[in-house]
Amino acid sequence: EVQLVQSGAEVKKPGESLKISCKGSGYSFTSYWIGWVRQMPGKGLEWMGIIYPGDSETRYSPSFQGQVTISADKSISTAYLQWSSLKASDTAMYFCARPLDGRDGSGEYLYKYWGQGTLVTVSS
Amino acid sequence: DIVMTQSPDSLAVSLGERATINCKSSQSVLYSSNNKNYLTWYQQKPGQPPKVVIYWASTRESGVPDRFSGSGSGTDFTLTISSLQAEDVAVYYCQQYYNTPVTFGQGTRLEIK
Questions:
Q1: Which residue of A25, A85, B79, B82 is most buried, as measured by CB atoms within 10 A?
Q2: pLDDT the model gives residue A123
Q3: Contact (CB<8Å) A44/B36
Q4: B52 — contact with chain A (CB < 8 Å)?
């Protein structure tokens, strides 16, 4: 069974750094992109970017380029999303997701499996 | 970027009645080499991650009731729930997976009238 398990909720102050995680199991972690999706309170879904753990190829949405860093440690089947200096506007639920197909497959950006979400609250 | 626009933003339908949600993309998401529309519909209930209900514009995900159907091609798509049940109350999103950046519609909130 494919599972994505995310790290727990975080409460941080503006200017602090943060790294949240997403651990995959039940499949070959290195063979599928992992994507990150933001959902601000009461708002819609925003695609942030993706990483291919097999070779660490990373792509970012222009809206998030330079604002966050996506990484992965394939030895422990875990992807990460990190901020170097949080802002109040980073308060949101963050989901990781795995697509239907592996890289270059037709469904490589179709998100069939989702983590439970990590709530990040940034407040002074 | 491909812009996805849903209509309406919210919808109230009586139990047992039909619900229809539309999604329009700013450019075609039909890939000519395989004749597939790279369009999916998600259902999101409060406190839960999104769940695929329809993909390739018209393929129902395993386990999804057959009252859910998807149609359309190119730039115009529709999600239809033929007979609304109480458990269908949710926000529905369309998403194109034709290219990156992947983009979502703004969501349609479906409620019981």
A1: B79
A2: 97
A3: no
A4: yes
